[in-house]
Amino acid sequence: MDAVSTLVRRRMNDADPDDEALLERLARGDQDAVPALYARFGRPLYAYARGLVGDDGLAEEVVQDTFVAAWRGAAGFEGRSSAASWLFGIARRQARDRIRRPQLETEGEERLEGLRAEGHEPEAAALASASRAEVVEALERLSATDREVLVLTFAHELSGPEIAEVLEIPEGTVKSRLFNARRRLRAQLVGREE
Q1: Which of 40, 67, 89, 149 is most buried per CB count within 10 Å?
Q2: Which CATH number fits the domain that encloses residue 160?
Q3: Nearest Cα to Cα of residue 38 among 57, 62, 63
Q4: pTM of the model
Q5: Low-confidence ranges of the chain (pLDDT < 50)
C-alpha cells in the first residue's frame, strides 16, 4: 500500500462517538448541543464552505445556515451516516443554494500538509518532492470536481462513503473521481519537473 493510499484510509481519527449523541440532543431541542456541535465541526465546515463559495463572508453564512438546518433537521438524522458526513452534506447543499456554480478554492498551507506524502510510489514521490506552493499551483490547475474530492479526502479526511453522501453520488463514482484526480494531480506535479 502506498503512502497516499494510507492517507486516504486515515479519516477523522479524533472522531468522537458522542457526535451522534449531540445530534440526538439537538433533535430533543437541547440548546447546549449547538455550541458543542459548533466547537466540533465549525472550523472544518467553514474551510469546506470557503472552498465552495470562494468568499469569507458567504462561507460564514453557509456555516450558519448549516447549523440552522441541522437544528431543524436533527430529528431526521437516522444514523445511517456519520454526523460529519451529514453536516458536510448539509453545508454543500447550503452552498449550492447560495450559488449555482460552486468554485472550490485551494486550502491554506496547513491543510495541504495532508496532501504531502512520503514513499517510493511515483504519486507519493511527486507529492513528497513538491513544495507547498507547487502543490497549491497544481491544485489550482485541476477542475473544481477534482479539487473537491481531493480536499474532502485529504484535508477533511472523510471516507469514501462519507464523500459519496456529501457529494450525493455513488461510492464507486467517488472512487473513480479520486483515482482520476490523484492521477491528474500527479501529472501536474511531474509536469513541473520537465
Answers
A1: 149
A2: 1.10.10.10
A3: 63
A4: 0.54
A5: 1-15, 101-122, 193-194
